[in-house]
Design brief:
The chain is of the alpha/beta class. 49% of the residues lie in helices and 12% in strands. Helix 2 links the parallel strand 1 and strand 2. Helix 6 crosses helix 8 and helix 6 packs across helix 9. It starts with a helix and ends in an 8-residue tail after the last helix. The protein binds adenosine-5'-triphosphate. The site of adenosine-5'-triphosphate (ATP) has 15 residues, from helix 2 and strand 2.
Length: 237
């Protein structure tokens, strides 16, 4: 590993893992791999963390194919090279998610979550790691504020009662631009093929808004996360 990776992102991952007690010795962690850049970066970071910290934990990679037939061959090869078990699970839900009135993205996430829970039980993992990062966190926060009038975003760790699942998000302090750079510099494997809904939702509109704000206020992402972490009842009605 290049030494400056510590400062660039690995210390931020150590910090989130420590601040929120995300990983403990002996954990068995199922890493959700979509074929996209965020989740392969997550897997790469966890490999580096394991090599460069006192923490000793197991990792298993999981890709759920919802019928998109994303080509994960190079990802599979990367995992094998790093001695990490890989699970490829087919659940063809394409017809189901597009026939319903609700948004296909909402239904897709729900059904994927169910499948992840089932597989986690089958292989005996006690935590699920997801590739949500700092920019996702800020965008989700803005989306909820603008579209639903709520102060709300996902948490660094959460417990899903329905499925009895512990979810961890070790990338909450890492910005998307850094992820893009490392994925490209390290030539991390991406799945080939993509979701038809990609970039067609409100999310891409908020991406634009965020870029616009950051042009004038470059530390907006950091300020947002600081505000969320230091939230106090006294400052709001
Ligand atoms: N098909 C899938 N199989 C397994 N895990 C998945 C799958 N799709 C998403 N995930 C997990 O859920 C996380 C959030 O999903 P989302 O669709 O928002 O991905 P994303 O933010 O675009 O990330 P990526 O760049 O990895 O696609 C991913 O980072 C990944 O950990």
């Amino acid at each position: 590993m290049k030494k400056w990776y510590n400062k660039l992102f690995l210390n931020d991952i150590r910090k989130s893992v420590e601040n929120y007690n995300m990983i403990e010795n002996g954990d068995k962690i199922l890493v959700g791999l979509s074929g996209g850049k965020d989740s392969i970066f997550l897997l790469y970071s966890l490999i580096l963390l394991r090599k460069n910290s006192y923490l000793d934990f197991n990792i298993i990679g999981l890709h759920i194919d919802i019928g998109l037939k994303i080509d994960m061959e190079s990802t599979k090869y990367f995992l094998t090279e790093n001695n990490i078990p890989y699970i490829h699970e087919n659940i063809d839900i394409m017809d189901k998610i597009f026939e319903d009135d609700k948004s296909p993205c909402y239904l897709c996430s729900k059904m994927k979550r169910g499948a992840i829970a089932r597989i986690s039980k089958e292989v005996g993992t006690n935590k699920i790691a997801l590739g949500h990062h700092k920019t996702d966190l800020v965008i989700t926060f803005l989306l909820n504020l603008i579209y639903t009038g709520k102060l709300d975003t996902f948490k660094p760790i959460s417990y899903n009662k329905k499925h009895d699942l512990n979810l961890i998000r070790p990338l909450i302090y890492v910005e998307e631009d850094i992820i893009k750079k490392i994925v490209s510099d390290e030539n991390l494997p991406l799945g080939r093929g993509k979701c038809p809904q990609d970039k067609e939702n409100k999310r891409s509109e908020l991406d634009e808004l965020l870029k616009y704000i950051e042009n004038k206020y470059p530390d907006f992402q950091q300020k947002t996360i600081t505000a969320i972490e230091n939230f106090s009842d006294d400052n709001l009605w």
